[in-house]
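Example protein
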Amino acid sequence: MRRALIGFGAFLLAGAPAVRSQPPQTTPPDVPGFAEAIDVRVVNVEVVVTDAKGEPVRGLGPADFRLLVDGREVPLDHFSEVVDGRASSSPESGTGAEPVARNYLVFLDDSFAVASPRNEALERLAADLSRLGPEDRMAVLAFDGERIDVLSPWSADRTALAEALRAARQRPAQGNRLISTKDSMANDVELAILAATTMELTREEMQAMVEVLNTRVPPEARTQLGRTAWAMAAALRGFEAPPGRKLMLLLTGGWSLDVAPRLFGPLVAAANRLGYSLYPVDVAQGDARILRDLDQLAAATGGRVANSARLDILRTVAADSGSYYWLGFSPSWKPDDRSHAIRVEVRRPDLEVRARSGFSDLSPRIAVAQKAEGVLLFGGAGEERRVRVELGEARPVGRKGREVKVPVTLGVPVEALALAPADAGGYLAEVPLAIAVVDAKGGRSELPGSRLRVAVAQVPPAGGLARFQTVLVLRHVAQRLVFTVRDAASGKILWGEAQLSF
């Protein structure tokens, strides 16, 4: 089981590091310079169309849809109808009747879950694993209020997934404690009403007072809900998904708090940015009004609330995500990390449409930063760990010695550089760099994004390392540092790490 520390104390004090390069030590051959790969982007929008009875509508074609980005209609570069998990024409290959993989990311929030309804939902989820298609994958994460545990990585092994869900049922559930705090505040309402009868309040004044008291949220619960929302969004950003449709099943009792819809905005933004559809599931004591509000939030990502009387969660999500229309367009602009509004319209007025409400351009800089966060939380793929990190001697800064300056040398594979001829001769390359750190208590932070820059007289030989040096200013505590850069040729994110100890 892997654990990801979740903390909120910032402890990096330096801004973007100044970087300088050192020339390679070998004599470079006369070979062509490296060119950065052309990034052809396609934004996919999954669209569910239903009739007045809520039943899926099939048989529509590209001419039946209008796709608007920031209020302007854009042409469709790809179109497929997916029926029962199979695409009539694949947006990637153009062939027909191909299975479309679905990736179910199960996120269990133990900080607000109540044991009995949580375990019942998990048991039913395990019993329905047979509904996974041959191309489908599932991963199981659990959050205890401070850390994310990886109970299962992405897997199609139903036996292993059932064991992960069984292990999830053994975890402590903390929802009763937080909900009891809310119930004690409900008692305050009753006492206030009794006291108000001696104050000769009008009926309207009494109703206003009760409404204010009923919408209060215990400070502890509100703080924890903020942590939960942050952890959910961090899981989306850091836990890489295989190709295919991405679905997040959110099992929590935090929906029962009135303030929940206002705190889950970053989660919805992260889901839209990365193409996830959200399916919230209440595993505590949520009321119908709160679930309706959350259904609107989920619908903004193309998902819906997955609660049902029989707790057939996986059946509900599989049915909802198995038949839809797959619209794709290619942005004409370079990635700039801006948010863009999406609206899908059907030319038939008697039909309802559900699709995500926006997307964000993911620039190389943000992709590199997200990889740093992902490695910090969940580890990284061994084959991508190709950045060599060397830390120099840490020296105290200031009178009290609370900070230290740490020299850092990074070795980046030459093949990852996009070397281009320089006006003054030789070659230049710039590489986006992201740095994320975590201390022993889970305190986490990131340095502002920066770029490594190298100038060489000739193209260095393949297989070597370009060396970059910088100095970081850090808190004087033990911590783990993760460095990520983007391979300009393949687009993959390479990473390395180091441990700062005292």
